[in-house]
Amino acid sequence: MTLPVIGAALCVEDLPKFRDWLIEKDRDLEIQSFVSPDMLAKGDWHGLVETARNTLDGYKGRMGIHGPFWGLSLSNPDPDMRAIVTKRMMQGLDVAEAVGARYMVIHSPYTTWDWHNLDLHMGARGRVIDLVHDCLSDVVKRAENMGLTLMLENIEDIDPEDRKILARSFDSDAIRLSVDTGHAHYAHGSTGARPADVFIRSAGEMLGHVHLQDADGFADRHWAIGEGTIRWHEVFRALSQIEADPYLILELRSVEGIMPSMSWLEREGLGQ
Q1: What is the CA radius of gyration of the chain?
Q2: What is the predicted pLDDT for the residue at 167?
Q3: From its phi and psi, is residue 192 left (phi > 0), alpha (psi between -120 and 50) or beta?
Q4: How confident is the model at residue 79 (pLDDT cuts 50, 70, 90)?
Q5: Nearest partner of 209 among 148, 151, 162, judged by Cα
Q6: What CA–CA distances, in Å, run from 26 to 54, 191, 228, 243?
Q7: What's this model's pTM, rounded to 2 decimal places?
Q8: Are 194 and 164 in contact (CB under 8 A)?
Q9: Residues near 23 by beta carbon (within 8 Å), at least 6 away in sequence
Q10: pLDDT tens, residue by residue, 142-187
């Protein structure tokens, strides 16, 4: 059995240190330097893009970026606020286009409050979907034209099916699901969500991207693989059982955890 090749989320300043490791197997890469609201508002990201492109000269792997997310709810009920969210998403696509990204990670609108309250209000579930469409329809169309995929990542999600229904409602190949294992494990331990492997199985053929990070079920730890309590053998078993070829990205609190994570995965026969 061929083990999956694991990539990593890195900031531009980390790229020189990991350049050879990335190129060695053309590993998946996610650049996370472009999420700052100040940077997007001021438009001063061009220098970072140039640095990234120069550093990655010769890299032929699958590369994407993490899109803007701080304070940006895709289902904000205020139309003026939604317009700002749309603007920030478009600015994220500007960056993605400039750096040559194939995907952009965006955050799920579903909250813990939603899980406990949406079904108590007539039409509330449909309202969330309508608001997200109002916010993202033009973004999705532009992503289609770019050949880029938006990866909708679980954050507070308790039921992974809600996010899947939302993604499918766009009827577009330009939006797929992302599963963050640490977010899923936090929600499993703290709010009664399904475990991480169920999030992956729920995504099924819609799964386009995975953030691999370990956690304890209490918080969003971003620990190295093997430091927390996620059942990694079941996570990778789930990945092997679905019809998808997702980007597999280590997203850790410190880049110093990348090599220990790889050692753990290789020792357990889960990834290379």
Answers
A1: 18
A2: 98
A3: left
A4: very high
A5: 151
A6: 16, 37, 28, 22
A7: 0.97
A8: no
A9: 58, 59, 60, 61
A10: 999 999 999 999 999 999 999 999 999 999 999 999 999 999 999 9
| Three-state secondary structure call for residue 128 | helix
Give the number of other Cβ atoms within 10 Å of residue 77's Cβ: 10
DSSP label at residue 12: G
Eight-class DSSP state of 167: H
Q: Is the pLDDT assigned to residue 108 strictly greater than 80? A: yes
Residue 1 has pLDDT above 90, yes or no: no
- Orientation of helix 181-191 relative to helix 196-203, angle to 10°: 120
What are the Cα distances from residue 226, in Å, to 54, 72, 215, 237, 256?
Answer: 34, 32, 9, 16, 14
Task: Map tokens 């010769």 to a residue.
Answer: 58
